[in-house]
């Protein structure tokens, strides 16, 4: 392991067929991506660069931490000198965020630094992981990849701005970048601030699920391993300059989500009893009702979500007890995947 901000060489480039750089790899989604890459591609060197802030945990990567084709580097992608060293030596890099100004700094400035350095290093492929929130909300119209960006919160705005930087490098230099926009992801290792692990944690501690407003806002939920498969599909088959929505037809209101978790964890199907585990509070200033999204484009590459909701949520609930005891209180990680030329 390197000390923060120090780039170390990885050995002879010929040792591995390719080198994959993932930023924010100790975070929720990225840790699943890294484990899958390390186990499925033993001839690839997988480099994890992470700043290790509050939502990141190396516990997520214990199963592969001693693998020969895995390396962890601690560092910050907003440090432009360090990023250039990392890409020069094919190392890993991370990015963290906390509040609105930090979202902007990391997502916009950090992405610009990373894209610029990746362009100079002539990487083979760059995947920028964005969000369906860049579209804004819609009650009926489904968004496709050509829909205009209309973000309604600072986080989504910063991701939309970062997309523009990535796209500008494709337009100007034909930099081989691909953008993905995914629905809500859930599964083991997710930090408790997100709705599903938050509700599970509250119920396991005999506390009520906190519902903002009516709870009729709906979200599309994807299990973590399905999103990993989507990223790998884009890595192998995605075309530079393209955007791919990663979504599912499964949609559920926040209130129904709470009731299903209450039924699962508290083992009750009584409507009146389930209501006693719900606490309604004032709605947020901006709380989009829906993010309906079409995913035909990535499905054309052969990807489909495989994990049914009942299976995924049951597995998540069972594993989450153990995760609550292991989680390290550190900062959130945002990640990208960079394919570096051998």
TrEMBL record:
Domain of life: Eukaryota
CDD domains per record: dTDP_GD_SDR_e
Signal peptide: none
Molecular function GO terms recorded: dTDP-glucose 4,6-dehydratase activity
Pfam families tied to this protein: GDP_Man_Dehyd (PF16363)
Known cofactor(s): NAD(+)
Domain NAD(P)-binding span(s) in chain numbering: 21-316
SUPFAM superfamilies associated with the record: NAD(P)-binding Rossmann-fold domains
Gene Ontology BP annotations: nucleotide-sugar metabolic process
Sorted UniProt keywords: Lyase, NAD
DNA-binding recorded as keyword: no
Gene3D superfamilies: NAD(P)-binding Rossmann-like Domain, UDP-galactose 4-epimerase, domain 1
Entry protein name: dTDP-D-glucose 4,6-dehydratase-like
Species for this entry: Canis lupus dingo (dingo)
Lineage: Eukaryota, Metazoa, Chordata, Craniata, Vertebrata
